[in-house]
């Protein structure tokens, strides 16, 4: 008899209650008892706890009895943040259905729309769910209408739940079984399994997470990873419930793990296909779309000795996160380091934090920049990942920058301030859609550089936190851009160069020079900070020579304050880099983000 299986994921905006709902489903199906229920079971990566964002996709199998039939419900966890679309699409490829979870008070957000479209593109059946109906200020009817207007879901099909109290969760389980189709795929066909995640266990080696598309895999089978053709024996296989539970076989439609004595995570490629080790094995599945790395920054050890430690740490991270890339970079100012590519700003912050948590290296990070294209006078196109590589003005025929389509959902009161922000960021309005009584979706084309600098934060503060932003690449477009160089005592500091719009160059140049003046500590001599385009200096500031010691301004008698100040100065010292004979702090390298 064919097993009754349902594979689904939950897609939701951050904080709409995905983890809480997952916990309730585990509890309602008896997969874990209330006592075993650790808070927020699915978010177990420590960093995720700190940041409260689900980053890595996980899978858990639940058993549910109904009408004498046992159902296996596989829940695949997905991240909700705009930077992690790539991981979302990995999870979607393993499911037949998606619970589209929307907070009954917050309503539809930009990421909800983006993720719902992604699910539809993967042909998933969508079960709309309105969560947090226990809230005093819940407005489920309006939210159902917003969902209809933005996503086309039928208000009568919305399942209303409280993930917190468990209200409606049984109805949701029914909806999962009734509406989401069972997986197809012949258990007797040649094996074809999609690798959607992996992690490393110190005792067992690499653990490969798979969704079996067709065929059956058993303990002792020899399997082959299609991409490299490497052959391994399956020594253990099973499912997560939510701890690892081993079994004898996994067949078409199931989701689980394989352990094959693989000693390095580098041998397991996410998006790869696992097949039988026979001549007529099944074809490889289409992999996942390669993630687009659009934001780059330089990472340098503040102590040059730590270069190899940094390389090892980056290698470890890259294995676990295929969307992150790095290559060696040499900077006159910062020495040997790496140029790293990220999906977005949040991704960059997370990698940086993980580096600091997991290794003991002091880092100096340069300001993030986006990828540019430059066509030189000879007609050659160059892809530029760092501003200092932009050729001199005389050699540029065309300068192109990446443009993204931003969808911004805001309560109506804030439409004006958000439109103003987008216009200031050189946005071009493309659409203005009314989603409900008090929510509007604005669509703008905006240069990615403007988005990554601070648009998200600015929208959040302009809308008291209610506005949400999502973006996707449109393509490269020509723009009037220039390279702005920063010089410290006459030395061009490559790591401080930025690319900006020519019309903004004077303002940016002045702002950066001013910011640097405040970030560079006084030396025994005067320090001149200049901003220049080509050979034209557009701004100059001077850091006067040192006269007093740092504690001098604490004229009161409070010794603890003085100590704190000295301590702070000592800590600040750690992340210093010398440019010529001028010491520049980590914070100063981010000064180029300053807007004036
Ligand atoms: P990320 O992991 O950051 O994407 O968030 P999430 O979508 O998993 O949200 P999470 O489950 O962490 O819930 C966010 C907050 O909403 C938590 O403080 C929950 O306690 C709360 N919450 C979740 N569901 C409900 C609900 O049904 N009612 C109420 N009142 N609060 C809820």
Automatic annotation (TrEMBL):
<dbReference type="InterPro" id="IPR035647">
    <property type="entry name" value="EFG_III/V"/>
</dbReference>
<keyword id="KW-0472">Membrane</keyword>
<feature type="binding site">
    <location>
        <begin position="131"/>
        <end position="134"/>
    </location>
    <ligand>
        <name>GTP</name>
    </ligand>
</feature>
<comment type="similarity">
    <text>Belongs to the TRAFAC class translation factor GTPase superfamily. Classic translation factor GTPase family. LepA subfamily.</text>
</comment>
<comment type="function">
    <text>Required for accurate and efficient protein synthesis under certain stress conditions. May act as a fidelity factor of the translation reaction, by catalyzing a one-codon backward translocation of tRNAs on improperly translocated ribosomes. Back-translocation proceeds from a post-translocation (POST) complex to a pre-translocation (PRE) complex, thus giving elongation factor G a second chance to translocate the tRNAs correctly. Binds to ribosomes in a GTP-dependent manner.</text>
</comment>
<keyword id="KW-0648">Protein biosynthesis</keyword>
<feature type="domain" description="Tr-type G">
    <location>
        <begin position="3"/>
        <end position="184"/>
    </location>
</feature>
<keyword id="KW-0547">Nucleotide-binding</keyword>
<dbReference type="Pfam" id="PF06421">
    <property type="entry name" value="LepA_C"/>
</dbReference>
<protein>
    <recommendedName>
        <fullName>Elongation factor 4</fullName>
        <ecNumber>3.6.5.n1</ecNumber>
    </recommendedName>
</protein>
<dbReference type="InterPro" id="IPR004161">
    <property type="entry name" value="EFTu-like_2"/>
</dbReference>
<dbReference type="InterPro" id="IPR009000">
    <property type="entry name" value="Transl_B-barrel_sf"/>
</dbReference>
<dbReference type="InterPro" id="IPR006297">
    <property type="entry name" value="EF-4"/>
</dbReference>
<dbReference type="GO" id="GO:0043022">
    <property type="term" value="F:ribosome binding"/>
</dbReference>
<dbReference type="GO" id="GO:0045727">
    <property type="term" value="P:positive regulation of translation"/>
</dbReference>
<keyword id="KW-1003">Cell membrane</keyword>
<comment type="similarity">
    <text>Belongs to the GTP-binding elongation factor family. LepA subfamily.</text>
</comment>
<dbReference type="GO" id="GO:0005525">
    <property type="term" value="F:GTP binding"/>
</dbReference>
<dbReference type="Pfam" id="PF00009">
    <property type="entry name" value="GTP_EFTU"/>
</dbReference>
<dbReference type="InterPro" id="IPR035654">
    <property type="entry name" value="LepA_IV"/>
</dbReference>
<dbReference type="Pfam" id="PF03144">
    <property type="entry name" value="GTP_EFTU_D2"/>
</dbReference>
<dbReference type="InterPro" id="IPR013842">
    <property type="entry name" value="LepA_CTD"/>
</dbReference>
<dbReference type="InterPro" id="IPR000795">
    <property type="entry name" value="T_Tr_GTP-bd_dom"/>
</dbReference>
<dbReference type="InterPro" id="IPR027417">
    <property type="entry name" value="P-loop_NTPase"/>
</dbReference>
<dbReference type="GO" id="GO:0003924">
    <property type="term" value="F:GTPase activity"/>
</dbReference>
<keyword id="KW-0342">GTP-binding</keyword>
<keyword id="KW-0251">Elongation factor</keyword>
<keyword id="KW-0378">Hydrolase</keyword>
<dbReference type="InterPro" id="IPR000640">
    <property type="entry name" value="EFG_V-like"/>
</dbReference>
<dbReference type="Pfam" id="PF00679">
    <property type="entry name" value="EFG_C"/>
</dbReference>
<dbReference type="GO" id="GO:0005886">
    <property type="term" value="C:plasma membrane"/>
</dbReference>
<feature type="binding site">
    <location>
        <begin position="15"/>
        <end position="20"/>
    </location>
    <ligand>
        <name>GTP</name>
    </ligand>
</feature>
<dbReference type="GO" id="GO:0003746">
    <property type="term" value="F:translation elongation factor activity"/>
</dbReference>
<dbReference type="InterPro" id="IPR005225">
    <property type="entry name" value="Small_GTP-bd"/>
</dbReference>
<dbReference type="InterPro" id="IPR038363">
    <property type="entry name" value="LepA_C_sf"/>
</dbReference>
């Amino acid at each position: 008899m064919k097993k009754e299986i349902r594979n689904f994921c939950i897609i939701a905006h951050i904080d709409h209650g995905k983890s809480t709902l997952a916990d309730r489903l585990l509890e309602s199906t008896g997969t874990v008892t209330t006592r075993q229920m650790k808070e927020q079971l699915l978010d177990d990566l420590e960093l995720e706890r700190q940041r409260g964002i689900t980053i890595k996709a996980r899978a858990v199998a639940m058993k549910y009895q109904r009408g004498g039939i046992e159902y296996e419900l596989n829940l695949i966890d997905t991240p909700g943040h705009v930077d992690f679309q790539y991981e979302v699409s990995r999870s979607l490829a393993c499911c037949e259905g998606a619970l589209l979870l929307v907070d009954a008070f917050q309503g539809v957000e930009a990421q909800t729309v983006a993720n719902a479209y992604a699910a539809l593109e993967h042909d998933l059946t969508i079960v709309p769910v309105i969560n947090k109906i226990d809230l005093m200020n819940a407005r489920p009817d309006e939210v159902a209408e917003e969902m209809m207007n933005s996503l086309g879901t039928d208000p009568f099909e919305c399942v209303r739940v409280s993930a917190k109290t468990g209200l409606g969760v049984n109805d949701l389980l029914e909806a999962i079984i009734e509406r989401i189709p069972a997986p197809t795929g012949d258990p007797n066909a040649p094996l074809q399994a999609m690798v959607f995640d992996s992690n490393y266990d110190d005792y067992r080696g690499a653990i490969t997470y798979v969704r079996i598309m067709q065929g059956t895999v058993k303990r002792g089978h020899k399997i082959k990873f299609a991409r490299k053709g490497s052959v391994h024996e399956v020594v253990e296989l099973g499912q997560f419930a939510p701890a690892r539970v081993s079994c004898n076989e996994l067949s078409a439609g199931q989701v689980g793990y394989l352990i094959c004595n693989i000693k390095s995570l580098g041998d397991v490629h996410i998006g790869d296909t696992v097949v039988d080790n026979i001549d007529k094995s099944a074809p490889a599945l289409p992999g996942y779309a390669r993630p687009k790395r659009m934001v780059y920054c330089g990472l340098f050890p503040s102590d040059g000795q730590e270069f190899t430690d940094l390389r090892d740490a980056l290698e470890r991270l890259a294995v676990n996160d295929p969307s992150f890339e790095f290559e060696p970079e040499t900077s006159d100012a910062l020495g040997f380091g790496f140029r790293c590519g990220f999906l977005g700003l949040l991704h960059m912050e997370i990698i940086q934090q993980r580096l600091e948590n997991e290794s003991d290296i002091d880092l100096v990070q340069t300001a993030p920049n986006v990828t540019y294209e430059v066509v030189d006078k000879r007609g050659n196109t160059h892809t530029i990942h760092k501003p200092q590589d932009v050729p001199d003005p005389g050699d540029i025929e065309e300068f192109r920058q990446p443009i993204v389509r931003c969808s911004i959902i805001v309560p109506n009161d804030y439409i004006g301030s958000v439109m103003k922000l987008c216009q200031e960021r050189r946005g071009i309005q493309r659409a203005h859609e009314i989603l409900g009584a008090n929510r509007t979706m604005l669509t703008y084309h905006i240069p990615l550089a403007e988005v990554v600098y601070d648009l998200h934060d600015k929208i959040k503060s302009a809308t008291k936190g209610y506005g949400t932003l999502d973006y996707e690449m449109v393509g490269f477009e020509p723009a009037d851009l220039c390279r702005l160089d920063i010089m410290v005592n006459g030395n061009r500091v490559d790591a401080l160069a930025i690319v900006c719009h020519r019309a903004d160059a004077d303002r940016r140049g002045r702002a950066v020079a001013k910011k640097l003046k405040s970030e560079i500590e006084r030396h025994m001599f005067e320090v001149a900070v200049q901003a220049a385009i080509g050979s034209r200096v557009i701004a100059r500031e001077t850091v006067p020579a040192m006269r007093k010691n740092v504690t001098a301004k604490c004229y009161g008698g409070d010794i603890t304050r003085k100590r704190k100040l000295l301590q702070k100065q000592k800590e600040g010292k750690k992340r210093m880099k010398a440019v010529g004979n001028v010491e520049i702090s980590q914070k100063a390298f981010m000064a180029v983000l300053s807007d004036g």
